[in-house]
Structure formats: structure tokens, C-alpha cells
Specification:
209 residues, alpha+beta, 6 helices, globular, oxygen-dependent coproporphyrinogen oxidase
Length: 209
């Protein structure tokens, strides 16, 4: 849990509001904790900027990918969407990891489904670190419609982004429930802790920037 003034915050002139929730998992769970945040920023030229973020981080006792969802609505007709199960190991050295968590789960079909929409195009983050962390089935796209088609953006959220996000979340939860992934040896666990810590620190740095 977080303090009340952190759980919900607002600036003095009311142009920005945000919420932050952190929940730790049970000791028996492979999940370490979940974090959810929402930020609303009114723009000086009109309109608003909304960011919704949900992340699930796993314990170093297993190798299940982390869950990451982020939706950034920049305007009524443009948004950025990121959805992924973040790898926690070097896939070049662990091709079985790619098979188990990305090929066998059918994540690529979900990525292709969204990419097929004419309003959707790849979005390239300015952070080279971020690009390296994303999996090969990760969804990182921009959704842009004509100025007169703001309703179309809402349709894409409800009919495509929503269902795809729920399906990826379902896949991730099933992986967590299915014996908690592969149990790691002590030396592997130590490396996993270092890797996870770096990813979490970098994620916080990028959010604050």
C-alpha cells in the first residue's frame, strides 16, 4: 500500500490529477507485486493527456515474464498503446523460453490482429533501452484517426485494445497459476534479482521523466 497523499494526488490549480496503487502478492504466489497508476494532465492549448499503466512483477524464484500495460491518450484522435510480457532472460541463450512463453501462448496472433487495423502503425520509443527490453511479440503502436473520427478511437479501444489486453492478462495469469513457472537454482535466482531490479529502476526513471 501507499500513503493517501500518494495514492491520490492533485496539483494546486487542478490541472493534473493522478492515482497510484501498489499491492503485494501472497507469499505463496509467484507474483511479487502489482502496480497501477493513472495520470490526467490538462493541456494549455486545450484537451487533456491521460496515461494508464498496469504492471505485474514476478518474484526471482521463477522465470515467468513480467506483465506490462500502458495506454497513453494524447488527444481524442491519437493514442499510444504498449502491451507486453517482458522477458526476464536472454532469449538467445534460452530458445526454450521463447517457445514456452511466446510461441506456445499465441501472443503473436494478438499482435498481428491489432497491427492489421488501418489506423494502427508501429510506434518507436526514443529510448533504445526500452526497445531492447520489449519482447518480439510485444505490442507498441500508435493509433491515429482523422480529426472528425474521435468515436473510431473509442471503438478501437473497446473492440480491439480491451479484448486483446484481457487475453494477454489471462495468458499471464494462467502462466502464474501453472506451477509458477520454472523454479530457478540459486545462481540463476541471483542473476534474476539483478536483472529485475535494473528493469524496475529504469521503468521508474522513465515514468518520472
Amino acid at each position: 500500500t501507499v500513503p493517501p497523499d500518494v495514492e491520490y494526488y492533485e496539483n494546486q490549480n487542478g490541472t493534473s490529477q493522478g492515482t497510484l496503487l501498489i499491492r503485494s502478492a501472497l507469499p505463496s504466489s509467484p507474483i511479487d507485486f502489482m502496480i497501477a497508476s493513472w495520470l490526467h494532465l490538462k493541456q494549455p492549448q486545450g484537451g487533456a493527456f491521460n496515461i494508464t499503466n498496469i504492471a505485474g512483477y514476478l518474484k526471482p524464484s521463477n522465470d515467468i515474464p513480467h506483465f506490462q500495460f500502458e495506454l497513453v491518450q494524447c488527444s481524442p484522435t491519437f493514442l499510444i498503446f504498449f502491451l507486453d510480457l517482458l522477458p526476464r532472460t536472454d532469449i538467445i541463450l534460452r530458445p526454450d523460453y521463447l517457445t514456452t512463453y511466446y510461441e506456445d501462448t499465441g501472443l503473436e496472433k494478438l499482435r498481428q490482429r491489432l497491427a492489421a487495423l488501418p489506423e494502427v502503425s508501429p510506434y518507436f520509443s526514443s529510448s533504445l533501452y526500452f526497445r531492447k527490453v520489449v519482447s518480439s511479440t510485444g505490442i507498441l503502436v500508435g493509433v491515429k484517426c482523422q480529426e472528425s473520427e474521435s468515436k473510431r478511437v473509442e471503438e478501437i479501444i473497446q473492440e480491439e485494445i480491451g479484448p486483446i489486453s484481457k487475453e494477454v492478462m489471462r495468458i499471464w495469469m494462467e502462466l502464474c497459476l501453472n506451477n509458477g513457472g520454472r523454479e530457478l537454482e540459486e545462481d540463476e535466482r541471483s542473476l534474476m534479482e539483478k536483472r529485475d531490479l535494473m528493469i524496475k529502476k529504469k521503468a521508474i526513471e522513465m515514468d518520472l521523466s
